[in-house]
Amino acid sequence: MIIYTYDGTFEGFLTCIFDCYSRKDFPVDIQSRIGEQRYLFAEKFDIPTNSVKAERVWKGVQKKLSGNNNQLVYYAFLSEESGIEMKIYRFLRRLFSEQFNIETDYGDSDVLELTQASQRVKKEAMRMMQFIRFQHTKDGLYFCGIEPRYDVIPMIYGHFQRRFADQKWLLYDLKRTYGVLYGKDKVEEVEISNRQFNRLNGQAKENILEEGEEFYQKLWKSYFRHITIQERKNLRLQRQHMPRRFWKYLPEKQASA
Amino acid sequence: MDNDKVLQKLSILADAAKYDVSCASSGSTRKNTTNGIGNGVYGGICHSFTDDGRCISLFKILMTNNCIYDCAYCINRRRNDRPRATFTPQEIVDLTIGFYRRNYIEGLFLSSGVIRNPDFTMERMVLVAKKLRTEENYNGYIHLKAIPGASQELIHEAGLWADRLSVNIEIPTEINLKRLAPEKNYKGILSPMVQIRNEILVSKEERKKYRKAPKFSPAGQSTQLIVGATPETDRQIILLSSGLYQSQNLKRVYYSAYLPVNHYDQRLPALNRPPLVRENRLYQSDWLVRFYAFRAEEILSEDQPFLDLDVDPKLGYALRNMHHFPVDINRADYEMILRVPGIGVQSAQKIVLARRHRRLNSDHLKKIGVVMKRAKYFITTNELPASTTDWEPQRLKHKLVAESVSKNKKLMDTQISLFTDYKPVLPPLY
Question: What proportion of chain A, given as a percentage, has pLDDT over 70?
C-alpha cells in the first residue's frame, strides 16, 4: 500500500499530483503530514513541495476547467474534508484524460462531492461577508476578529479592499492566527504579537476602542430590537439563516449592556 | 449629535418603518472610487436577521412618522396618538455612514410619512441621497420610496442618486383603496411607477450607446401589496402582480400579511392573527411565475380563486394535472422537469447537465438534492417504474400532506373562514 504525504498546503498537494503522473503511480491515499495519521503499515512517500511542479499542474487544470468554475479544485481543497485529496485526484485524472467536459457529470460521485464541497466553502465565504463586524479603534483602525470554518479569508479580503477603500482595516482569523491588514492601497498578511482583543470572540478590549464605538453598537442594538415585528416572531427561521456559532461576533446578539 | 435624542428618534422611526417588508440589496453593480466608500454586490448581502426571521440588509427608517394622511391600515395615520419624530438629513447621513463603515449594512432604505405635501417630503429625501453620494463619496446601496404625488423633476432626480425606487400599491384594487384611504387614488400611485419604468428604459438604451450616460435606478423598481386587509381573492392578487412584472418591468412584488392595527376602525377586518400561511403561498406562486415559467392562469382559475393552504401551489398544480405525469427524467425537456414537485431550479439544471453523461437513476437524484419523497410519484428514472398510475389525486394529496413536516401546521389561519365564503356584491374588476 503506497501512501503519498504532503505538507498540508495546496502547493504541496499539487506537487503530489505531479509526482503521481511522473512516476506513473496510483497511490492508495494522499495524506497531509499535519493532522491525524491514518495508516500504520503503509509505505509512505514524503513529497517535498516544489512550486515549479505545482505551477505546471495548476496551469493544466486551468486550461481544462471552464471559466467561472476554474476555482473548483482549490475551493474543494479548502474544505479540508477527510478524503478530499483522493476525490480531487480521481477527478483530475478524468479531467486530463477525457475529451468531453466532465465538470457537469453529477452522476459521478466524485464530481458531485467536489462541487458540493466547493459550494460549502463559497457559502462560508459569503457568511463571512455577512457577519464580519468592524470595531473602530482609537488609532483609526477598523478591527475584526473572526473564526471561519474553512480558510476563506483569502477569498474575501478583495471585497473589503474594494468596499472600504478609504479606511484602514484589519481582518484577523482567530483559529489560524493570521490577519490581513489594509492601509492606503496596500494589503498585507500580518500576525499579531501583542493581543489586545478577546481570543474567543474577537472583541477588542475596551481601552483601545474609540469613544463613539460603544454608542454605535448601542444604536445598532436598538435598531435591531425595534425593526422586529413581534406578531411574526419565528426564532427557528432566524437560527436557520444566522447560525448560533456566529452570534458571539454580532453586537445585536450580545446581552444588552 | 445629541446622543440620547438620536437614540430615541432611531427607536421610534425604525419601529415605524418595519411594516415595509422590502429588504433587498441586490441588483447593484456600482463600483467604488479610489477615495470613496462602498460598492454594490450584485446578489446583495444580508447582514443580520430579525427575530421574526426577515433579513436586515439595509438601514430601513422613516425620515419622519408624522403624516398628513389618515389611511385606515397604517399605524402612523394622522389621528393616532403616538410618539412622533423626525430625522434631519444630516443625522440620517451620519448614521448610514457610521453603520456602513462597520459593515452592519449594505445601504440605506429611506421612506417617510408625508409632511406638508408630497413635494416637500420628496425633496428632503432626495437631499439625503444627494448628500451621501456627493459629500460622502458613498457608492453603496440606496433604496428610496417615491412619494405618490411628487413632481416629475423630483422623481427624476431621485432615480439619479438611488439604486432602487419603489412606490407601494398596498391595496390590490382601487375600489378598496378608496374605502380605506379616501385621500389617495390609483392615479397618484401609478403615474410615478410609469415614469420610473420609462426612465429606466430610456437610461438603459442610452447607456448602450454612450457609456457615460447617467444610470437611473439601476436595480429596478418594486412594490408592496397588503394581503388580508381587503377581500380580494388570491387570483386577483396574482393576476395583478404578473401584470406588474410584465407591463411595469418590476423587479419584485412584496406581499405583506395584514397585521391587525387600529382596532377601532370598522372598515378593517377583525383578525386575531396575521394570515401568514396565505402570504407564504402567495410568495410561492410569485416564485412559480418568475422562475418556473408558470402562467398565472395555471396556478389559479376562476372556479378556484384562492390558493390551497394545505399544499404549495406547485404540488397543487401537479395534482390537478396528473395527466402530464409521470415525467421521464432522462428524456423530458427542462420546462417539464421544473414542474415536478420536489425538483427546484438548481436540481433541474443539474439533472439536465448530468444526464448527457449517463442515465440517471433515483440514487443520483437523491444525491443531487431532489426531494424524492415527493418527486417519486411524478417521475420515472432509469430503474424506477412510475407509481402515479394507482394514485387518485385527492388520496395522494392527503398522503403527502400527512407525511410532510409542515412548519405551518401549528399556525391556525383565521383568514380563510372570513373570505372564502365571500361573494362579491359588485361585479369583479377583472
Answer: 99
B101 with A224: Cβ contact below 8 A? no
Closest partner residue to B101 (CB to CB) among A142, A215, A227 is A142
Q: Is A66 helix (H, G, I), strand (E, B) or coil?
A: coil
**CATH of range B3-196; options 2.40.40.20, 3.40.190.10, 3.20.20.70, 3.40.50.300:** 3.20.20.70
User: Strand order in A2-6's β-sheet?
Assistant: A29-32, A2-6, A43-46
pLDDT tens-place string over residues A61-104: 998 888 888 899 999 999 988 889 999 999 999 998 888 888 88
> What value, to the nearest 5°, has the Cα angle with vertex B73 and ends B68 and B78?
20
Cβ <8 Å between A242 and B257: no
Instruction: Give pTM, 2 decimals.
Output: 0.89
Closest to B169 (Cα-Cα) out of B260, B73, B297, B313: B73
Which residues of chain A make contact with B355, given a CB cutoff of 8 A?
107
What is the helix (H) or strand (E) element at residue B89, kind and residue range? helix B89-101
Cell of B304: 378556484
Is pLDDT of A37 > 80? no
Residue B124 has pLDDT above 70, yes or no: yes
What distance in Å separates the CA atoms of residue B290 and residue B394, rounded to the nearest whole number?
28
**Minimum mean pLDDT range among A187-191, B94-98, B156-160, B201-205:** A187-191
Which A positions 151-190 lie with beta carbon below 8 A of chain B? 159-160, 162-167
B15 with A109: Cβ contact below 8 A: no
- Taking an 8 Å cut-off on Cβ atoms, the answer to whether B354 and A107 are in contact is yes
Contact B47 A131 (CB under 8 A): yes
Whether B123 has a pLDDT exceeding 50, the answer reads yes
Do the chains contact at B17 and A250, CB–CB below 8 Å?
Answer: no
Residue in B37, B54, B353 closest to A166 by CB: B37
The sign of the CA dihedral A162, A166, A167, A169 is: positive
Q: Are B310 and B280 in contact (CB under 8 A)?
A: no
Helix (H) or strand (E) holding B14: helix B3-17
- Chain B residues with beta carbon closer than 8 angstroms to that of A144: 103
Question: Per-residue pLDDT averaged across B231-248, rounded?
Answer: 92
3-state secondary structure of A5: strand
The secondary structure of residue B260, as a DSSP letter, is -
Tell me the C-alpha distance between A126 and A146, whole Å: 14
A242 contact B CB<8A: yes
Tens digit of pLDDT for each residue in B170-226? 999 999 999 999 999 899 999 999 999 999 999 999 999 998 899 999 999 999 999
Q: Which residues in chain B touch residue A104, judged by CB atoms under 8 angstroms apart?
A: 350, 353-354, 356-357
Q: Are B307 and B285 in contact (CB under 8 A)?
A: yes
> Predicted ipTM?
0.90
| Domain locations in chain B as residue ranges | 3-196, 313-403
